[in-house]
Amino acid sequence: MALRTIELWRGGIDLVSPFRTSFGTDTSRDLLYVHAVGDSNSGWGECVAGVEPNYSSEYLENCVEVISRFLVPLINRDTTAESFIKSATPIRGNYMSKACVEAALLDVQLRDQNISMAKFLGATKSRVASGVSVGIQNSLDDLVRVVGEYIAQGYVRVKLKIEPGTDIELVRTIRKEFGDELLLQVDANAAYTIADASHLKQLDAFNLLLIEQPLPEDDLAGHIELSRVISTPVCLDESVTSLDTARGALDLKACSVINIKPGRVGGYLEAKKIHDLCLERGVPVWCGGMLETGIGRAANLALAALPGFTLPGDISASARYFARDITEPFVIKNGHIDVPNTVGIGVAPLPEMLAKFKKTASFNLSA
Q1: Which domains does the chain carry?
Q2: Is a pLDDT exceeding 90 seen at residue 24?
Q3: What sections of 3-94 are H helices per DSSP?
Q4: I need a labelling partner for 174 at 20 to 30 A (CA). Which of 44, 47, 75, 308 fits?
């Protein structure tokens, strides 16, 4: 593989409907793509950081600076995804910045090698069960309507966003309306504290698959205590930023399920290591979503096709979030989405959609 340039592309895309969590409400996505251009092929990586540092300490403008000032200088014409991640080790944190650069490098090198990302990672499935994440609604009636619409579209699992004051009653309502057969889980996005343990224990009555990240990301002790108090499986999201933090959380029994988001852990290579650890220990994992467009969605599908991803993830159809995706849209068929099986991540931006974006930086690489 011989690289020539690294480009940064910026733009935005509206969501089909507002998406509300305990962090706030999103109506659109400001986007940053990394484009790695080689002599023969090119590859794309999508940054999952938000505009504000609420889900994590990273945010979009920070990622632009980190990539431009610190990560691109590590890349030369012979750099691979693996060598890049090794050279970026001294740079602390900044997982989302590293992840989108790694993804672009991985895409171009796999295209050069004429293999798919799914095959490279070790996928064993050609399609992935599709779940849907439902934001906090204005009323219970709205929630019932929205969940019903998603079930009618074929989604096999529903995740409800919750926060203090908007939790027990909405779960009770959905269970009553759609029955115990519905695969149902909740996501708190770190909105509670350990003082809420007795309140969260009420969720045990609803046979949930899991409760995702109930407490702040740095409160591992609280998650250990909560896991002893409630019978609903505790899943960690924001708390897991690497293989080491995943191993520590499992060793300490702070959780029994892990949500693997490549952007949160620094890339797909690290995500696979976490998957392998959990597979070895018999710990179920699933692939979370960060409102990705088709670039990130395609790569996530390749990851979610690995054997340890036994729970339906948040990889929904493109139409769940966007009237028109930047790539050819992903569609749900019988509750599943096909995993791209061509070279690299299997997709690229549509020319007419990329024309709405702007190349904001281009870095020529030396030998």
Answers
A1: 3-114+350-364 (3.30.390.10), 118-338 (3.20.20.120)
A2: no
A3: 60-66, 81-87
A4: 308
pTM of the model: 0.96
Surface-to-core class of residue 166, CB atoms within 10 Å of its CB (0-12 exposed, 13-18 middle, 19+ buried): middle
pLDDT per position as a tens digit, 182-231? 999 999 999 999 999 999 999 999 999 999 999 999 999 999 999 999 99
Task: List all residues 6 or more positions away from 350 whose beta carbon is below 8 Å from its beta carbon.
Answer: 326, 327, 328
149-162: pLDDT as tens digits: 999 999 999 999 99
Q: Is 273 a known active-site residue?
A: no
Q: Are 116 and 341 in contact (CB under 8 A)?
A: yes
- Cα–Cα distance, 123 to 100 (Å, whole number): 21
Catalytic residue, candidates 261, 333, 356, 358: 261
3-class secondary-structure state, position 254: coil
261 is catalytic: yes
